[in-house]
Amino acid sequence: MPPGMPAIVQRTVLVVDDIPSVRFYHQYILEKSGYRCVVARDGAEALQKLQAEPVDLVLLDIVMPNLTGLEFIQQVRNNPAFVQLPILVISSERIGDKVRQERTATAGPVGYAQKPLFPEIISAEIHRLLETT
User: Fold this and answer.
1) How many other CB atoms are found less than 10 A from the CB of residue 51?
2) What is the pLDDT of residue 98?
3) Domain holding 21: CATH number?
């Protein structure tokens, strides 16, 4: 890089889903869009990854074994270091449900998208969430 040129900061997204093909699909789309990805197969592994390295956003499935997406959000929001971490909640269930929104929107930026996600939807939602932080 030539002297005086600012370094390009690559944003990191933690992709959390229990289905390997879905994780791969989201990772592929995000990496093609210039994001660096860290992947986890459930909320418990995602918490470990979140503690191990900084991320700029979490792309989070809701229905998972071990620690669900909702349980993950509750634990993350209880940690002052992660209160404002943007989270894009994804699910094949009806996530527009008022109860689910109330439970996941307790603090910090949260977006919602329903599976299947198309690349332009993922990109738009991630861009919107990252711009709010």
Assistant:
1) 11
2) 43
3) 3.40.50.2300
Domain that holds residue 37: 12-131
Q: Compute the distance between CA of residue 90 and CA of residue 30 in angstroms, rounded to an integer.
A: 15
Tokens in use for 12?
């990191």
| pLDDT digit string, tens, across residues 54-71 | 999 999 998 888 888 888
Domain count, the chain: 1
Cβ contact 38:60 at 8 Å = no
Residue 5 within a domain: no
- Contact assessment for residue 92 and residue 62, using Cβ atoms and an 8 Å cutoff: no
Tell which residue, 56, 21, 22, 25, has the closest CA to residue 129: 56
The verdict on residue 44 lying in a domain is: yes
At residue 26, the pLDDT reads: 93
Q: Considering the domain boundaries, does residue 111 fall inside one?
A: yes
Label residue 91 by pLDDT band (50, 70, 90): confident
> Residue type at 21?
S
CB atoms within 10 A of CB 18: 18
